[in-house]
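assembly run, all chains below
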Amino acid sequence: MKKILLMGHPNVGKSAFFNRLTGANVIESNYPGTTVDYTKGYIRLEDKDVEIVDVPGTFSLEPKDKAEEVAVAMLHNNKDAFVICVIDASKIERGLYLALEIIENGYPTILALNMWDITEDKNIQIDVVKLEQILGIPVVPTIAISGEGIKKLVERIKQAVPIKVDKIIEKAGDSAK
Amino acid sequence: MRLTTDQRWGLIDKIAKKTITFGKYEHTLKDALGELTIKPLSGIPIAIAVLYGFWSIFCSFAGTLCTDGFFVKLFDKHFLPWAQRFFSQLPHWLYYILIGEPAADNCFEAFGVLTSGLFVALGVVLPAVFIFYLMFTLLEDIGYMPRLAVLIDTVMHKIGLHGYAIVPTILSLGCNVPAVTACRILETKKERFIMMTLLAIFIPCGAQLGIMQKVIPATMGWVLLYLLAGYFIFGFIMHKLIPGRSPEILIDVPTYQMPTFRNVGKKLRMRTVCFLKTAVPFVLLGCAVVNILYLVGFMQWLSNTLSPLFVNWFGVPKETVSPLIAAFLRKDLAVAQLSVIEMSKYQMITAVVLVSIYFPCVATFVMMFKEGWRELLGSLVVLGTVVFLYGGLLHLIWMLLGVA
Amino acid sequence: MKKKLTEMAYKENAFIASIEKDIMHKVSGMGVRVGKRVEMITKQPLKGPLTISIEGTHTSLGRGVAEKIVVSPVRSPAFDKT
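ok done. output:
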C-alpha cells in the first residue's frame, strides 16, 4: 500500500478524523503555496508506516474552486492510492455522490459514515450491512470527535478493493431482499 | 465506467431506498439560532455586534492587558536598563545594532535588535496575533463564517468578489500569509487576483494593528477608515477593468457546533507557531538591516534622494524613508519606527497609511510569488499606482482641510 | 404551477423540477437535484443570495444560480382536502 488519501466534503470533521488516525505519530507539515496545500502523517498498518494525506475538502470531483482543484489533482496524481472517503452520515445522499465518483475512477475505497451520533439524533436509520453489500466496499460508522469507530476503520482499510460501478447498479437494482 | 450526474443520482436513489429510513426531524434550538443569524433583519445587527465584540476584545486583551499591563513594564523598566548595562562594553557599532540608542529610556526609541526587535515581536505583536487567532478559530469552528459570507455577499459583488471573500479578508487581518493561500476558495482567476491584491495592499495585518493600537491609538481609526475606503474603491475599479467572471456564491451553511477544545487548541497552536516562525526572524533581521543601513550612511543618502517625493508629494518628513525600507521586512517594525519620528497628527496618518499600502512584507511577497508570478507582477503594478495616487490624495485632503 | 426557485416565498416548500445543464455539475455535489424537497429559509435583500434547506442542510446560492432552478410547489394540506 503506497498512500492513503483522506477525502470528503468540507465540514464533515475530516481534520478531527485525520488527527485520530495519525494519533501521536502526527507529522504536521503544511506545504503552503506550492501546488498542493495539505497535511500528511503516517499510520501504522501491519508493521509498516503508511503515508496518509488530508486532502482539502471537496463536494465533487468536478472542481468549482482552486482548493477543490488541488483535491482532484491529488487524486489523479496518486493512481495507486487507497481512499478513505469521509462523509457526513446525516447527509448521506450527497456523501454517496462523492463516494461513487471516487469508486467510478477505480480507486479502492473505504467509506466512513462520520457524525454517526448526529445521524441518530436526527432519527435517520442507515442499514450499514446492506449498504456495504450493495457498494461492495467496507462501510464503517464513525464519530471522529470522540474517536469511535476509528480503530475498526483502520483494521478494514486493507479490505478496500476497486469496484466496477455496474456491479453496484446490478446489486442496487436487485429487487429481491 | 463513469456515470452521468443523472445516472449517479438515480443509483443513489435506489441505494437510499434500500438502506436509509428518515425519521421525523425535530427542529432544535441550534436550527433556530442558525436561522436567526442568517436572516437579514436579525442577522445584520448580530453580525455588527459580533465584529464589534471581536474588535473590543482584541483591543483590550492585546493592548491594555498584555502590552501595557505587562510587557511595557517588563521591557522598559527591567530589560532595557539591564541590557544597556550588560552590553556596555561592546564596540560602538555592535552596541548600536543590538541595543540601539544608548540614551533611550523605552524600547520603541532604542531600536536595537535585542531591545525594540524583541519587544515589538513578543511584547506587542504576539499577544495581538494570539488573541486574533483565538477568536477567529472560535468563529470558524462554531460555523459562523459562512453566515457572515451570505450576509455580506451583495456588497462584495460590487467589487467583483462574492461573500466568501470575507474569509481571506478577515484572516488577513491576522496575517496576510495564510490569507494568500485562503484565496484559493475563490473560483476564478479574476476573483483571486482582486482578492490577493486588495489584501496585500489594504488590509493591515494583526502585527500592524497591534502596534498601531499601541503607538498611534488616537489616529488609528482614521487610518483604518482610509484603508477600508481604499479596499472598496480600488476593488470596484479593478472589478470594472479586469476581464473575467465573478461567479455567484454557492456554499454550505452548516449547523452551529460546539467547538472542541482539542481542535481549537490545535489550530491556534499551528497558526501561532507559523506566525512566530515567519515573523520573529524578520523583525530581528529588519532591525539589524535598518541599523546597518544607518551606520553606513545609506539611509541618510536615500532619505535625501527621495525627499522631493516624500516631502512634496506625500507631505511627510523625509525621515519616513527609513521605516518604508523596514516595512518591506516587517510592517509592525515600520510603524514602531514611525512613532518616534517628529511629525503632525495628519502626517502620521499619511505615513502609517503609506506603510500599510506600500509593498507587502517579505513573507507575503514570497507566498504571492508561489501562487503565480504573473499575478504578483500585476499586483505590484496596481500597488505602485495605488501608493502614488492614494498617498498624494491623502496629502491633498489635508491641504484642502488646511492642516498640511 | 411551476416557478423559479427565486420566486419561492419565505417558508414555502417545493420540489425541484429541473436544473439547467450549465449549473448542474456545480450544484449536484452539494445535494441539490431534481426531485428533492426544498424549503426557503431566507432571501437577502438587494438581489442577494438565497438560503434554502435541502436534505436537512442549509445551502446558500446566488440569484443567478437560483434562477436556473425550477420548482413545483408542494400543495398545501388544505388544498388536498378539497
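Residues 21-28 of chain C form the longest helix (8 residues).

The CA atoms of residues 14 and 75 of chain C lie 8 Å apart.

not gonna interpret more than that til we talk
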